[in-house]
Design goal:
Blueprint lengths: L14 E2 L4 E2 L13 H29 L3 E3 H6 L1 H4 L4 E7 L5 E3 L2 E8 L2 E7 L12 E10 L2 E9 L2 H7 L13
Parallel strand pairs: 3-4, 7-9
Antiparallel strand pairs: 1-2, 4-6, 4-8, 5-6, 6-7, 8-9
């Protein structure tokens, strides 16, 4: 009876040398288990990506959380607001609008409270006395608000969206 010679795999080739050791051909890197150094690199890259994502979310939410305060509430919370930027809202007091070289100064009212607004930007085209506005800026003193942007809300739309939030100079709620 005749026995067939051993079959070798195509990648290993014929037996080589004493003891029948097989020759090893090219190795497929994807077939090897990941080495410890690669795991550490993947962990570091993952941590950096997660950190960047968390930073972007926090930064985005921080700037997106601009809140509106009527002038009377803003003055009441002035100490806790400090120099933080926020949006103050109120009605432009008639007779208080004065153009300056850098913009316009005016007074907003809300309830019994009046706040001087010093704006360094150019006011919107619809800006005028006796309309609801929002000024973006911060307090520099108890009744002085420094602003670089004024937003004019179309009164019928704004009042419908926020009934009772804006008080007209004559004391009526709009």
């Amino acid at each position: 009876m005749t026995t067939a010679p051993p079959v070798s795999s195509p990648s290993s080739g014929p037996p080589d040398g004493p003891g029948g050791a097989e020759r090893i051909g090219p190795v497929d890197p994807s077939a090897l288990p990941p080495q410890r150094g690669h795991r550490v690199r993947y962990a570091v890259v993952g941590a950096v990506l997660v950190g960047a994502l968390v930073f972007l979310v926090v930064k985005g939410l921080g700037t997106a959380l601009n809140f509106y305060l009527p002038a009377d509430q803003a003055v009441a919370r002035e100490a806790s607001l400090g120099g933080r930027t926020f949006n103050i809202e109120g009605v432009v007091q008639p007779g208080s609008v004065h153009s300056t070289p850098s913009g316009v100064d005016f007074v907003v009212t809300s309830g019994p409270t009046s706040v001087q607004v010093d704006n360094s930007g150019s006011p919107p085209q619809l800006f005028q006395p006796d309309i609801p506005v929002i000024a973006v800026g911060h307090f520099t003193g108890r009744t002085t608000f420094v602003s670089d942007q004024i937003l004019v809300k179309h009164s019928s739309n704004y009042i419908a969206a926020h009934p009772g939030r804006v008080t007209a100079p004559n004391g009526t709620k709009r």
